[in-house]
Design goal:
single chain, alpha/beta, Rossmann fold, two-stranded parallel ribbon, globular
Length: 302
């Protein structure tokens, strides 16, 4: 198996998951970060591969490509592979589309995801033009151990410091998650079952409100949350981990071949256990500084 990247969150988790399950895993990266244990490193820039992959053969390629160029250059370098799985994104769906988004929903620019989403669209298009038998997965918010994005870790920080939690509006905005372990399991199912469907929305069947998600995170830390609702016209990304954008994926096709997923609370427990030992691995944003500077309500217990 070739995993592109292999050093940060999704690609690292994938590499380590398949190594633990007996696969012979190669990772392709520039060797600027710590490598997954027992992975075989191919040190290269994927935008300047030259002949470096000429003498390798892979049964499976799992790619987190961000653009059409990423896909094209890799396929040029390896000569094309039937068993190619692209980790795409729900960012390919426009915010004005009818929800829940299905795999047949028209793709388009999304004002919240911008170039990231349109580049993923082009990556998908290029891959299917060159390899119609490839598989494409479109997850919502991914979570799990090794997550370097400041989402659940931000809530854990607030809970550990016994802070009140500043929540946008009434906190009823819905979020949809998918554990990175479930994505790995789904990839295995695809490789074994070879479904005729080649594009899948993947995610938990149930969504969760922002309030419920925060309450779970505080409970895992052993704290009870005190909410402070923010109704001001303030960009919520200044103080909160998610855009003011609610969307939902129809994942019924996923559930036809994989029925069970990790319970969100169990997955968040895994996240917290990992975070306690890896605080330095998360790319933190200055949410707390913004809160302390701009909101008058203070934490009396701090």
């Amino acid at each position: 198996m070739l995993v592109t990247g292999g050093t940060v969150f999704v690609s690292r988790y994938i590499a380590e998951y398949y190594i633990a399950n007996g696969y012979d895993v190669y990772v392709l990266n520039r060797n600027s970060r710590k490598q997954p244990a027992h992975a075989k490193l191919i040190e290269a820039d994927r935008h300047n591969l030259g002949e470096i992959l000429k003498n390798y053969y892979f049964d499976i390629i799992i790619d987190t490509a961000y653009s059409a160029t990423d896909v094209s250059l890799l396929l040029d370098a390896v000569g094309g592979y039937e068993d190619y799985i692209l980790i795409s994104s729900s960012a390919v769906y426009p915010q004005w589309g009818i929800q829940p988004f299905t795999e047949e929903t028209e793709l388009g620019a999304n004002k919240y995801w911008g170039k990231y989403g349109t580049d993923k669209i082009e990556a998908e298009k290029t891959l299917l033009q060159r390899n119609p038998r490839a598989y494409i997965l479109r997850p919502p918010y991914l979570y799990g151990p090794m997550n370097n994005v400041y989402r659940e870790a931000f809530v854990f920080d607030c809970a550990m410091q016994s802070r009140p939690f500043y929540i946008p509006q009434d906190g009823k905005m819905q979020l949809q998650f998918f554990h990175v372990k479930d994505m790995c399991k789904f990839i295995e199912i695809i490789l074994n079952a070879r479904p005729n469907q080649h594009i899948f929305n993947v995610g938990n069947k149930e969504s969760v409100s922002v309030c419920e998600w925060v309450e779970m995170c505080y409970h895992i830390v052993g704290k009870k949350v005190q909410f402070v609702n923010i109704y001001h016209n303030i960009e919520q990304r200044n103080y909160f981990s998610f855009y003011n954008y609610q969307y939902f994926l129809d994942v019924s096709k996923q559930y036809q071949i994989m029925e069970n997923t990790v319970f969100l609370q169990d997955g968040l427990k895994e996240c917290f256990n990992w975070y306690q030992q890896n605080v330095d691995k998360v790319s933190k944003k200055p949410f707390l500084n913004y809160i302390d500077t701009n909101f008058r309500c203070t934490n009396e217990n701090k």
